[in-house]
């Protein structure tokens, strides 16, 4: 049956005659070739030249001049038949053209014949139609294709392949996952060995450990780290392998004064150290311990709570200070503490010079749920203080906190305006303002001493709040101010948050500035 199909599909015949190539118009005739050869042949010349009696080259050299001898070596037969020599004019011989034409004819016949795969598909279609075949096919030789004839002769003797069970077909419209994946991606996933899996890598985020909330002392020590590290480092370098003598005590006193601790505190530390360890070896830990003890003695009398006389409603708190000491932010933090305790608070925007001061205080009033009173920019601050007192009294507010414009202590006209605010409040209540708080910027250093002195004389400052201790290495100025003016220090600030304003504790501050753990 297969031979019958091949007989129908393939047509065998005689070899196509090879077309003779037309003669080239540039071909040379035999006469022309003879003439050209005669012209190019070298002519014999007869010259009277001296002839050597013996040949200078030995016969053995002449025999091997072209390389090793070829005796006993058989040459390989040529792959192609010999080709006539090409003429001097570059014309291709007729025999070469005929060979090229024969090769092209064979290629054309091979291209016209159907492929073997197509023959098998057509044979399968005949089997399904029930064709019984036509019997053996007569072998007809095709020139140059004996392999195909032998395959056709033996086709009937080959056993038919056994039927193979086809996999069950999927329902109409149903496509398996593997087939669908092959259709989409063009390939199926390879079978991976044990221990591997396919799919994108999943990176699980690392668990974030919750940050432990620091205690107030830890935050205070962290805020004063620049002051304490600088001070303790210099002390340790001073007392390295050195006995305590007069020169060492003088060097220590200079070091403490440079740290803004003040002359009085520096002398107290050196006197105590001299009485305990004079003439003996002293370490930096010994000096830090004595320094913390003496600073605590200086600060303990001024570490007092802010007293509110609620019999006077409202209790008026006037906040003063130079530019940039954090007055408005400190007022907001105080209002948050008082409102959280259940007191009714009013905030008065008395800083009518700074454009953003009024809006900033209004935001703090909204956050702390406090009453607010303000005026236009450039208005009289003393008139605002008068209106604020009247409204706070009418609304039965417990505390009235009045903000003032920042001013330098050496500006006489600005200090006179502050004095006017105090006089106006005194007319409404002889005891008003009941508390005058001055905010001090720890970064100002020794300049804070003169600020306290002038504001105390003009506005009657009776309490201090030290701010920005976390941004300076000069936190020791609070010790010098306390030793000189003996004013109460109510609060200290070490940050911008509401919880960063805490009551002043003398022992904690002394140990933090000396670098001693609690």
From TrEMBL:
Job description of the protein: Involved in targeting and insertion of nascent membrane proteins into the cytoplasmic membrane. Acts as a receptor for the complex formed by the signal recognition particle (SRP) and the ribosome-nascent chain (RNC). Interaction with SRP-RNC leads to the transfer of the RNC complex to the Sec translocase for insertion into the membrane, the hydrolysis of GTP by both Ffh and FtsY, and the dissociation of the SRP-FtsY complex into the individual components.
Assigned GO CC terms: cytoplasm; plasma membrane
NCBIfam families: ftsY
Keywords, sorted A to Z: Cell membrane, Cytoplasm, GTP-binding, Hydrolase, Membrane, Nucleotide-binding, Receptor
Protein's recorded name: Signal recognition particle receptor FtsY
Catalytic reaction equation(s): GTP + H2O = GDP + phosphate + H(+)
Superkingdom per UniProt: Bacteria
Ligase found in the keyword field: no
Classification lineage: Bacteria, Pseudomonadati, Pseudomonadota, Alphaproteobacteria, Hyphomicrobiales
């Amino acid at each position: 049956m297969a031979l019958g199909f091949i007989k129908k599909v393939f047509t065998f015949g005689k070899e196509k005659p090879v077309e003779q190539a037309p003669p080239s118009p540039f071909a040379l005739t035999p006469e022309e070739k003879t003439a050209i050869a005669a012209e190019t042949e070298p002519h014999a010349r007869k010259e009277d030249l001296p002839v050597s009696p013996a040949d200078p080259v030995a016969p053995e050299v002449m025999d091997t001049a072209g390389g090793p001898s070829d005796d006993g070596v058989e040459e390989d037969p040529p792959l192609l038949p010999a080709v006539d020599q090409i003429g001097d004019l570059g014309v291709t011989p007729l025999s070469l053209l005929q060979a090229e034409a024969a090769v092209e004819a064979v290629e054309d016949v091979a291209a016209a014949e159907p492929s073997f795969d197509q023959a098998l598909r057509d044979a399968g279609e005949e089997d399904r139609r029930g064709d019984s075949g036509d019997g053996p096919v007569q072998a007809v030789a095709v020139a140059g294709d004996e392999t195909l004839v032998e395959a056709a002769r033996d086709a009937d003797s080959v056993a038919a392949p056994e039927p193979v069970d086809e996999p069950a077909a999927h329902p109409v419209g149903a496509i398996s996952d593997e087939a669908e994946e092959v259709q989409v991606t063009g390939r199926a996933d390879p079978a991976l060995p044990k221990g591997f899996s396919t799919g994108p890598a999943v990176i699980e985020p690392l668990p974030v450990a919750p940050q432990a909330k620091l205690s107030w002392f830890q935050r205070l020590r962290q805020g004063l780290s620049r002051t304490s590290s600088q001070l303790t480092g210099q002390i340790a370098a001073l007392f390295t392998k050195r006995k305590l003598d007069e020169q060492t005590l003088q060097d220590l006193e200079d070091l403490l004064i440079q740290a803004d601790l003040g002359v009085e505190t520096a002398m107290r530390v050196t006197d105590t150290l001299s009485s305990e360890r004079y003439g003996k070896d002293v370490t930096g830990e010994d000096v830090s311990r004595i320094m913390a003890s003496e600073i605590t003695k200086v600060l303990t009398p001024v570490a007092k709570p802010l007293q509110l006389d609620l019999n006077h409603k409202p209790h008026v708190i006037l906040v003063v200070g130079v530019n940039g000491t954090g007055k408005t932010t400190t007022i907001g933090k105080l209002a948050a503490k008082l409102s959280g305790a259940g007191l009714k608070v009013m905030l008065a925007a008395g800083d009518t010079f700074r454009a953003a001061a009024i809006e900033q205080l209004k935001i703090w009033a909204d956050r702390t749920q406090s009453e607010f009173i303000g005026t236009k920019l450039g208005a009289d601050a003393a008139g605002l203080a008068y209106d604020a007192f009247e409204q706070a009294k009418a609304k039965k507010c417990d505390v009235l906190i009045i903000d003032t414009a920042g001013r330098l202590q050496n500006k006489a006209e600005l200090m006179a305006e502050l004095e006017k605010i105090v006089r106006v409040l005194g007319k409404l209540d002889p005891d008003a303002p009941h508390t005058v708080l001055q905010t001090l910027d720890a970064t100002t250093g020794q300049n804070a001493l003169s600020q306290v002195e002038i504001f105390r004389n003009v506005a009657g400052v009776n309490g201090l709040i030290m701010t920005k201790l976390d941004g300076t290495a000069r936190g020791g100025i609070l010790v010098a101010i306390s030793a000189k003016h003996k004013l109460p220090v109510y609060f200290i600030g070490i940050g911008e948050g509401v919880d960063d304003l805490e009551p002043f504790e003398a022992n904690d501050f002394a140990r933090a500035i000396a670098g001693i753990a609690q």
